Amino acid sequence: MSQIQSRINSSAATLTKNRTEDSITPASGMCVTCVDGCIGMCEIGKSAYRGHEVIYPQPFGVITTASEKKYPVDYSDFNIMGTAVGAHGIEADSDKAIFPNANLEVNFGHDKGLKFHYPWLIPGIGSTNIAKNNWEGLAIGSAIAGTGLTIGENVVGMDPEAVIKNGHIIDTVDLKRRVRLYKDHQRNGYGAIIVQANIEDTRLGVQEYAIEKLGVEVVELKWGQGAKDIGGEVKIKNLEKAQLLYKRGYVVLPNPNDPDVIKAFERGAFKEFERHSRVGMVTEESFAKRVEELRKAGAKYIFLKTGAYRPADLARAIAYASKYELDNLTVDAAGGGTGMSPWRMMNEWGVPPVELHSMLYNYADILAKKKKYIPSLAVAGGFTFEDQIFKGLAMGAPYVKMIGMARGPIAAAMVGKTIGRAIDENQLPVYVERFGSKIDEIFVTANELRKELGNEAFEKLPSGAIGLYTYYERLAQGLRQLMSGSRKFALEFISRDDIGALTQDAARISGIQYLMDMDSAEVDEILNI
Known about the structure:
Layout (H helix, E strand, L loop, with lengths): L42 H8 L14 E2 L11 E3 L25 E3 L5 E3 L3 E6 L3 H4 L2 H11 L2 E4 L3 H4 L4 E3 L2 E4 L1 H11 L8 E6 L1 H6 L1 H9 L3 E5 L10 E4 L2 H9 L3 E3 L5 H8 L6 E4 L7 H14 L3 E6 L4 H13 L4 E5 L3 E2 L5 H6 L4 H17 L6 E5 L5 H10 L4 E5 L2 H18 L5 H4 L5 H4 L3 H8 L1 H6 L2 H23 L13 E3 L2 H7 L9 H8 L2
Helix pairs in contact: 3-5, 3-20, 11-13, 14-20, 15-20
């Protein structure tokens, strides 16, 4: 029996459900008895009157989304291997080899000039409302934690206050604000603000503007993401903004300049326009040209992010990143998304995390054995907690240096923001109020941050930033504990044999040893008494 499970025709993501919830046809997702007279609560029924609107998770702008699909293998099919012997990266002394001494710092880039306190980054949050409305917490929280944050696609093109002349950016309010919020809170050179670009951003000259005018050192080319294999999308509720974006060259549906469409919008026949980005057309020639352009523009570090495309595209990504000596390649697996991704696409396209990350390791290993340059690698695709972070680093060791996360950090920033607002309104729920009624009482890292930053700076911190910082603090302590249990006290010592496959399928797909086969030679030697 197949372990693959895919839910069809009803989901909280599309605000749909079946009438006969306990009796569903597996292949179609339809009620076993579809009755004439039903109002249409399922996805088919809702599509009968809202059509293309039901393609996307709802309500747009206040949610992040991820696939419901259960794949045959995921990171829970691996366990972390501990040991009672020795220590790596620290003296094998019980008074020194304690988990707080595990070093999580990562240095990377062609000159090892990028340094993060923790081995993770947020790999791309762009023009969606969920990103814009939580940017203050995400930027400041990432900066004070000393980790990376990527400004995603379409931020300039979506900015109604941006000044664009002859198809090029002259000035922008939103991008400037996003960069400055991060850089103004960056401490001791740790972390990095990264400006990503898709095809529209490249045409506008966004990265050149960011380098020249905003002092950005790190830029990222984008081939896609794990949630979808088409361009970025958002919904627009304002006619004038939809017309502005259409004028700037975006694909806007329906045409906001069509008189009939305008009349239909004004009488309420539909309430949202869709703005779509174009898909890029990757060639080695255009890739090499763009890398050279960015280096001439002054980019100190160049990254590439790619999505859950077919194996040949992953091979292209790592081959080009190697040949043109990029500083980092982020590989984002199927299933997740922070903005507006088509729901069925999010569930049914692309290569899942374990498979994609296993391929990445194999391809990197092939190039390494040929003595080729290997950039720092980062993997993404549903990571949220320290055990998954450890497994992702081990799966790709020694090539994978970082983990990409977006939904988890956004959730932490949103909760921090919500708690701050509830404190201000004196409406804390009992679940939170049991910890106290003030910032210093509720957030466990508040005392530490107040001491490090000083009272004045701490008082100015948005609660969303404290929420993100506190979430990161939890991940860091948890990861140190796991590393200590494996006797690995620095990230460079984490290896593939620090995890074991729980099933033969997981072992076959990943190349990680099946648990029952691990240490066999050493076991024979030990038992030869």
